[in-house]
């Protein structure tokens, strides 16, 4: 019996097949399905390689900028970032308390050395 005929006979549940034929048909189905999965994985890997190659070229062109220009832009952006940070913190405090931003004065912003998120700290407090 041919493999294609065997697979056609396997579709029909009323067909009488010997145990060897059923086993052979099962192995054929398994091999075909593994081949399809392997081909799809190879295609996905090729797509990822192409995307990484394209991204690598963009990063190289960005890194070719003049270092002096980068240092000048960093100095001005730090001041702007601090002002933006103060405004964001003020707005979030005003939203949380329900007050207007006129009543809130941010005097100091201090970064903590805590590397754990609030969720991680909360689980340790519960599981004592």
Automatic annotation (TrEMBL):
It comes from the Bacteria. Pfam families: OAD_gamma (PF04277). Keywords: Cell membrane, Membrane, Transmembrane, Transmembrane helix. This is Na+-transporting methylmalonyl-CoA/oxaloacetate decarboxylase gamma subunit. It comes from Paraclostridium ghonii. The keyword Transmembrane helix applies. The chain crosses the membrane at residues 23-51. It is found in: Cell membrane.
């Amino acid at each position: 019996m041919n493999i294609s005929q065997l697979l056609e006979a396997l579709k029909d549940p009323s067909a009488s097949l010997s145990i060897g034929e059923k086993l052979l048909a099962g192995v054929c189905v398994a091999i075909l399905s593994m081949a399809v999965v392997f081909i799809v994985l190879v295609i996905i890997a090729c797509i990822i390689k192409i995307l990484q190659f394209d991204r690598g070229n963009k990063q190289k062109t960005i890194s070719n900028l003049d270092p002096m220009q980068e240092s000048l832009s960093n100095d001005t952006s730090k001041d702007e970032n601090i002002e933006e940070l103060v405004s964001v913190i003020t707005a979030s405090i005003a939203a949380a308390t329900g007050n207007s931003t006129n009543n809130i004065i941010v005097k100091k912003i201090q970064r903590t050395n805590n590397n754990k998120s609030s969720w991680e700290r909360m689980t340790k407090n519960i599981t004592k």
